[in-house]
Design brief:
Rossmann fold; 9 strands; globular; binds 1,4-dihydronicotinamide adenine dinucleotide
């Protein structure tokens, strides 16, 4: 896959925070963008197909994937939640996406993984894509599962994936942790473009971050993507550092996954 435009690209999670941004910025990458979510998506825009779908419904996802050359898979629960919710949307959901890809011949997936695959590392640790995962909850575990699903579908069926362990992709960084983890929307879009069009990616894991001054993650294992971020959290430093500093024992200062490391338990106890 080395042309610069696809026939039909599927975007799941298109009604979400990142989906709403990418619905515009991915448009030049395909003749038709098929957008999907379980929430309302509004009317189809030019060169779009709107397909509501619950990712936990295998048959519905099978129909959703049919006719698509590639998939940008953002859909699912995006925060720490009880296991049963994560199971339906993320664990079953990612399985349904890959099965659809296998059955209908989609050759490339961009999987929105997360820094929470490694959230229990300390902020003093330095990692690359070979570092063992250290998930910080059921959500992080579901992203580890998604990455392993990608690896298996590549080895077994040749479907290629770039798993982007997104740090924090928001309009602007607003706290100290985000000074390390921030990924601008422009850099996210470029990383997805590289992920879709770089040949022979196999299963590549890349940390999704802008060119921030102090980073925890080394992307040398993904150098073949040629990703060169254009933005940095640095212009926001003064404003961020004017906000109160969290206590020394606050998880947001200790762990890479920040507050996610302290969520739960969600049982009756
Ligand atoms: P979001 O929560 O705003 O969007 C997720 C979308 O998935 C929502 O529109 C939701 O309706 C949809 N969804 C949930 N369950 C579904 C189901 N069963 N069937 C169909 N659709 C379902 O999250 P956001 O911030 O846009 O993130 C997008 C993706 O990127 C997520 O997979 C998230 O885990 C991942 N990510 C995002 C980061 C960020 O900083 N925004 C950081 C790391 C990962
Ligand atoms: C994520 O995985 C979440 O989806 C997002 O909402 C942020 O919380 C981000 O990680 C983060 O760690 O900042």
């Amino acid at each position: 896959m080395n042309e610069n435009r696809l026939g039909r690209l599927l975007l799941t999670g298109a009604a979400g925070g990142l989906g709403r941004v990418l619905r515009d910025t991915l448009k030049p990458m395909a003749r038709i963008l098929r957008v999907s979510d379980v929430q309302a998506l509004g009317d189809a825009q030019a060169d779009e197909e709107v397909r509501p779908c619950d990712l936990s419904d295998k048959q519905a996802v099978d129909a959703l994937v049919q006719g698509c050359d590639a998939i940008v898979h953002l859909g699912g629960v995006s925060v720490e939640r009880p296991f049963e919710e994560i199971l339906e949307a993320n664990i079953k959901g990612v399985f349904h996406i890959y099965e659809g890809a296998r059955r209908h011949g989609a050759r490339r997936v961009i999987f929105a993984s997360s820094n929470h695959t490694v959230g229990f590392y300390r902020q003093t640790d330095r990692l690359d894509a070979r570092s063992p995962t250290r998930p910080d909850g059921y959500y992080g575990l579901s992203k580890v599962y998604g990455e392993q699903m990608a690896s298996f579908y590549h080895d077994r069926y040749g479907i290629e994936t770039v798993s982007i362990r997104i740090g924090t992709s928001v309009a602007e960084p607003t706290d100290r942790r985000m000074m390390h983890t921030w990924l601008s929307f422009r850099d996210l879009t470029e990383l997805i473009r590289r992920g879709l069009f770089t040949p022979n990616v196999g299963h590549t894991v890349v940390f999704g971050m802008s060119a921030n001054r102090e980073v925890w993650w080394d992307n040398s294992q993904a150098a073949h993507l040629g990703y060169a971020p254009a933005d940095s959290s640095e212009p926001f430093r003064q404003r961020v550092e004017a906000t109160p500093e969290p206590a020394a024992d606050d998880p947001v200062r200790i762990y890479q996954g920040g507050v996610f490391t302290a969520r739960g338990p969600f049982g009756d106890d």
